[in-house]
UniProtKB/TrEMBL annotation:
Signal peptide: none annotated. InterPro entries: DNA-SBD_ScoMcrA, HNH, HNH_nuc, ScoMcrA_N. Residues 250-311 form the HNH nuclease domain. Residues 1-22 are annotated as: Disordered. This is HNH endonuclease. It comes from Streptomyces radicis. Keywords: Endonuclease, Hydrolase, Nuclease. SMART domains: HNHc. Pfam families: DNA-SBD_ScoMcrA (PF26340), HNH (PF01844), ScoMcrA_N (PF26345). One of its GO terms (molecular function) is zinc ion binding.
Length: 344
């Protein structure tokens, strides 16, 4: 916008100091005009966090990776999402994590939070602010247990990770997907996700997602995270419905953002001009291919419709014909979004 200003008669390029408000003014206006604005700094922070989670060194118990660290991270992500304090006294941390590990440690994990926290501290994901050193060595049980019993530190997620996971639904989706994919194969994490407050669709959403403008790069990255959460064996989908609510929330928001506020039924005769109390368009997201009949919980088979078109697709006498049309539109919209991401 600043560069374009110099092409006006008698004008010159604008500097950053000539703009006010950042996200609330210039960026908001650019998105209203149809531009895609990417926060490169936040994207780099997200990539760094994703890499740290991917590089975690976890011990292996009977049947697969030990769940100490994933349980600890999911607990902390839930706290960050709810806006709770980042740092906690050791007494509270030990009590809450011991209970979670006892309930959800499905591979014989000992209910001692000192070992996973020592490992997360070494990985740069956890912080012991009163102890500048990295804390105890994470190997073995006796060393970390003695160190935490003696020092009883205040601790919590590293500040950069906490702030990103608190503010970004994309970051929560990415990290949750990575943890479930790497550590919970063959297990049902639904009870753990519910207890940590990460099961409902709001767990991966940001306020104003539907009105923030469409970002193809973000769309492609979140689709990739959603796909990592899909069951590897599509035929066992019903047995693994634990991840449907989590993925459904993220996929629903992507379908809404992709629609840019308009009903995607090419035969729509007109949608309401009114909006919700939050300023969002009156659109509903439909799984064009029903989940119960083997459809995917994925933006490629989801579409945003006005309430009238949604009713026609669900209950209209020509709904099967409309279903075929909408399935083609959803697939085309999805392909166009991914193509925009690859060229942008």
């Amino acid at each position: 916008m600043g560069v374009a200003h110099r092409f006006l008669p008698g004008q010159q390029a604008l500097s950053p100091d000539d703009f006010s408000g950042g996200q609330e003014h210039a960026v908001k206006r650019l998105r209203e005009l149809g531009f895609t604005v990417v926060d490169v700094r936040e994207r780099r922070r997200l990539e760094g966090l994703r890499d740290r989670v991917a590089r975690l060194e976890v011990s292996h118990a009977s049947g697969g990776p030990a769940l100490h660290q994933p349980i600890t991270l999911l607990w902390a992500i839930g706290r960050a999402r709810r806006g709770e304090e980042r740092l906690l006294p050791w007494t509270e941390t030990e009590r809450e994590l011991r209970r979670l590990i006892e309930r959800h440690g499905a591979r014989g994990e000992r209910p001692h939070p000192d070992h996973p926290i020592a490992g997360l501290t070494r990985a740069g994901l956890w912080e012991l602010p009163e102890h500048p050193a990295e804390g105890p060595n994470a190997h073995g049980d006796a060393g970390p247990h003695r160190w935490f019993a003696e020092h009883r530190p205040v601790s919590g997620l590293a500040r950069d990770a906490h702030d990103l996971l608190r503010d970004s639904g994309e970051a929560r989706l990415t990290v949750i997907a990575a943890l479930l994919d790497s550590s919970f194969d063959g297990l049902d994490p639904e009870p753990l996700l519910k207890e940590t407050g990460l099961y409902d669709e709001g767990a991966t959403g940001d306020p104003g997602d539907a009105t923030a403008g469409f970002d193809p790069l973000r769309y492609a990255e979140q689709c990739a995270a959603i796909e990592r959460l899909e069951p590897r064996d599509h035929g066992r989908r019903v047995e693994r419905t634990w991840n449907a609510p989590l993925r459904s929330g993220a996929a629903r928001r992507l379908a809404l953002a992709r629609a840019n506020g308009r009903c995607r039924n090419p035969r729509c005769t007109g949608q309401p001009d009114d909006v919700t109390d939050h300023g969002e368009p009156l659109l509903e997201v439909d799984h064009v291919a029903d989940l119960a009949l083997g459809g995917r919980d994925h933006p490629g088979q989801m579409i945003a419709l006005c309430p009238n078109c949604h009713a026609l697709k669900t209950r209209g006498s020509r709904r099967e014909e409309l279903r075929r049309v909408l399935l083609a539109v959803a697939a085309d919209d999805h392909a166009r979004a991914l193509a925009a991401a690859s060229t942008g």
